[in-house]
Amino acid sequence: MLRLSNRDLSLDILDPNDAADNKRQGWRYCHGGYVWQVTDAQLGPLLTGPSYPAEPTVYDGQGLPESFRHTRRDNNARLTWKGDAGHAIGAGNITANPDPKAGAADSVRLGEPCQWTVTKAPDHLIFQTRQTAAGLSYELSRKIELAGRTVTSFTQLTNVGDTPLALQWFPHPFWALTEQRAQIKLPAGTTVPDNGVFTIAADGSLTFKRPFGPKPDNQFALLTLPPKTPLALSLNHPKLKRVTFEASYVPFDCPIWGNGHTISVEPYLGLTIPPGETRLWFAKHGFEK
């Protein structure tokens, strides 16, 4: 496990070149820059996951993972595939599970993982990889930076192939609940379809109709955000004044999901990168005491 720390916070980050850490990595999340836990020097761990505090399955994960989808979220159409050969950007080569009854966690299998170069500095870590697979070729750089009580994840992706690179990316933060509920302040005008748990007022305040019960109780819904505006939100936390989150891009899609252990808002970024071009974006967390 890699670590960044200051007098306020410490970050445990999975090491993509460590065999023990790789047992926690699969095909779903990017291996370089996977923040496993953020810990306050006085208050202890601040992040959770779908099974927290138990060790999660590889598919579920915990902390602040981020993902490049190999298929579209809405219709599962293939993105980073060439025939039967697929590649999960930042994770590695994948193949489809031929069993039609396989669930989401077992829908694909990870083969050869990406190889990473890790550069360490006192306040940040940089993870870099270059891959050619499944008809695509790319250079990926991930930077995790700790400044005071703020954690920022920067992603830079360059298409070094000869065809456009079409993909979807999203952060999947696992925030802690307070007594199986959360209060989230979203942009004014955000709406959500009628569902069993989440409700949103006109000013963007999301609250729970009821607390989550034990597994398998959970809720998934799609938020409709104000147009042409990058997402910024804040939410309550059982140990902190609040947690803030912001993304540098305008999401094209934004699921919210939670169960009795965690809550997550997942703003999706859609990209089509022509050959020779680069895209850069970030996601930022503030852990306010």
Please describe what this structure looks like.
The model has no long low-confidence stretch (mean pLDDT 97). This protein is mainly beta and 289 residues long. Strands 10-11-12-13-24-20-19-15-17-16 form a ten-stranded antiparallel β-sheet, with no helix packed on it. The chain has a domain at 2-176 and 262-288. Helix content is 1%, strand content 45%. It contains one helix and 24 strands. The protein has one helix spanning 19-22; strands at residues 2-5, 9-13, 35-40, 44-45, 66-69, 81-82, 85-88, 92-96, 108-113, 117-121, 124-133, 136-147, 150-159, 165-171, 184-185, 198-200, 205-208, 218-222, 232-235, 242-247, 255-259, 262-265, 269-273, 278-288.
Short description, anyone?
The chain has 289 residues and is mainly beta.
SSE blueprint:
Elements: E1 2-5, E2 9-13, H1 19-22, E3 35-40, E4 44-45, E5 66-69, E6 81-82, E7 85-88, E8 92-96, E9 108-113, E10 117-121, E11 124-133, E12 136-147, E13 150-159, E14 165-171, E15 184-185, E16 198-200, E17 205-208, E18 218-222, E19 232-235, E20 242-247, E21 255-259, E22 262-265, E23 269-273, E24 278-288
Antiparallel strand pairs: 1-2, 2-3, 3-4, 5-14, 6-7, 7-8, 8-9, 10-11, 11-12, 12-13, 13-24, 14-23, 15-17, 15-19, 16-17, 18-21, 19-20, 20-24, 21-22
